[in-house]
From TrEMBL:
Coiled coil (residue ranges): none
Protein name: Sulfatase
CDD domains on file: sulfatase_like
A GO CC annotation given for this chain: cytoplasm
Stored InterPro entries: Alkaline_phosphatase_core_sf, Sulfatase_N
Residue intervals of the Sulfatase N-terminal domain: 4-339
A GO molecular-function descriptor: sulfuric ester hydrolase activity
Pfam family, one: Sulfatase
Keywords assigned by UniProt, alphabetized: Hydrolase, Metal-binding
């Protein structure tokens, strides 16, 4: 077996034509359903970026126990399991979070990897004394900074060295993936992951893509919305959205080049293809930009997924309504190569669904660490918040005490205790570290970051845009029972139930 996995970041399902998108042409994404199975109800698990990738590699949810952090010593990792079974795995990525304190154990699970530099705040190009006066005039004040190690400053420096289309990280990322295929397509038993940070913010695309979405904006570069409520003027909002569409158009061309390669070399004969994203991104819907700060709306959590298995060509062009999640990808990749999934994986292989639609699970649990616990059964979505997110009892369970950019502080670790092994830690005891307000994650993607904290129930059948929460005690009770069942299956710690005011079942 050979397999190519394409992972985008922040690719909105609802802008893609195969899912009804009409905001921009996506002719190459349109080609995917001709070959692949299109999944209609595919959802996230743990968010944001690296928590999603931990779910992806391990096949189990992590957000009830842990925020952003590395793979743990007890975690199963599907590329490592493929290696032990004799299959070669290679990662091509421009996702720089793999190379920070909070992500540094993911890329080394692959047999080899290519890291493409220059996305967002990647500390890539050194400019000790940048020409600040010129740069200050180029960039909007909300995406400009002279502060050392600030992500805006780093991005400004990086963009001074990205001019030609061939220099853009996502373009280089796909080109490097093609190099792997050129060297190895005749070999057997390999897995290639091509992963790009695009269309994640900042929404930076080559000029020919931006020209297709002109808005009349005459101000400085405005392609990086801040996380939070929309407070920009309409013309500024249109410019931000247009730049997102430009990057999606770039992604469409890149996936098209890969599909062309499949066609040219008839890789469809013996090579699987999976295309998805980690999560979506709000572009003003619900009066918000981005993610992390607000309720987990459908635009963030309901994501695209296309799966092609060369042994199941009859599944080309079909659509599946089974409820699936990111945690199902690891067992799917293992199944492609005939490797049994370990007991700790909660996800299930999607390959049987290519043969016939069915029920993979009754519900999908998802969330941010320290935020609401959320669940859907495909009809309803239920978002249950703690009464006071800033005052809840909350612990991180880890043997790898690092945050996104830095280790846990001595102040945080001073309150740590050694907890008994959890069912998924393979007999290893684990640190139980209380979350404090001085924690670096608290106001960034933790409980202090929330701008919405109202428990809500939505009926997606009557209100797919989630415009109006409903009051239905019967439906809410059913969703609470489903939530309890899934939390128990995820070995949720006792305080996870207490913090949202439900009983452990």
């Amino acid at each position: 077996m050979k397999a190519v996995f394409v992972l985008f970041d922040s690719l909105n399902r609802h802008v893609l034509a195969p899912y009804g998108g009409r905001r921009l042409p996506t002719p190459n994404f349109d080609r995917l359903p001709e070959r692949a199975t299109t999944f209609e109800r595919h959802y996230v698990g743990s968010l944001p970026c690296m928590p999603a990738r931990r779910d992806l590699q391990t096949g189990r949810l992590s957000f009830l126990h842990r925020s952003w952090g590395p793979l743990e010593p007890f975690d199963n990792s599907f590329p490592e399991m493929l290696c032990r079974a004799g299959a070669y795995s290679h990662l091509v990525t421009d996702h720089f979070h793999y190379f920070e304190d909070g992500g540094a154990t993911y890329h080394t699970r692959y047999d080899s990897y290519d890291f493409i530099r220059g996305q967002e705040g990647d500390p890539w190009k050194a400019m000790v004394q940048p020409p600040w006066e010129r740069l200050r005039q180029m960039y909007h004040e909300r995406q400009f900074s002279e502060t050392a190690r600030d992500k805006f400053r780093r991005n400004i420096a990086n963009r001074e060295f990205i001019r030609e289309e061939s220099e853009f990280p996502s373009v280089r990322c796909f080109a490097t993936g093609m190099e792997f295929l050129e060297r190895n397509r005749a070999a057997d038993n390999w897995f290639l992951q091509i992963e790009t940070f695009d269309p994640h913010e900042p929404f930076t695309a080559p000029q020919r893509f931006r020209d297709a979405f002109t808005t009349g904006w005459n101000g400085p570069v405005r392609d990086w919305p801040r996380y939070g409520r929309v407070d920009e003027l309409p013309e500024e909002c249109e410019e931000l959205r247009a730049n997102y569409y430009a990057v999606v158009a770039l992604c469409d061309v890149l996936i098209g080049e890969l599909l062309d390669y499949f066609d040219q070399h008839d890789l469809w004969r013996d090579t699987a293809l999976v295309v998805t994203t980690d999560h979506g991104f709000l572009l003003g819907e619900h009066d918000f930009w981005a993610k992390n700060r607000m309720n987990m709306y459908e635009e963030i959590v309901h994501i695209p997924l296309f799966v092609y298995d060369p042994r199941r060509r009859a599944s080309a062009g079909v659509r599946r309504s089974a409820l699936t999640q990111t945690i199902d990808l690891a067992p799917t990749f293992l199944d492609l190569f005939g490797v049994p999934a370990p007991a700790e994986m909660q996800g299930r292989s999607l390959l049987p669904l290519l043969d016939a639609d069915g029920v993979l699970r009754d519900g999908a649990l998802f969330g941010y660490f320290g935020g609401a616990i959320n669940v859907t059964d495909g009809r309803y979505t239920y978002h249950r918040f703690p009464p006071d997110p800033r005052a809840q009892e909350l612990y991180q369970y880890t043997l790898m005490p690092t945050h996104i950019w830095e280790p846990f502080t001595p102040e945080e670790l001073a309150g740590a205790s050694l907890a008994q092994p959890m069912p998924f830690t393979k007999g290893a005891p684990i640190l139980k570290i209380p979350v404090i307000k001085r924690s670096p994650m608290f106001d960034n993607y933790g409980p202090g970051a929330l701008l919405e904290s109202e428990t809500r129930l939505y009926d997606l059948a009557d209100d797919p845009g989630q415009d109006s929460p409903i009051s239905s005690p019967e439906a809410e009770e059913a969703m609470i029972r489903l939530m309890q069942d899934l939390m128990r299956a995820n070995d949720a710690p006792p305080e996870a139930y207490a913090r949202i005011g439900i009983e452990a079942k």
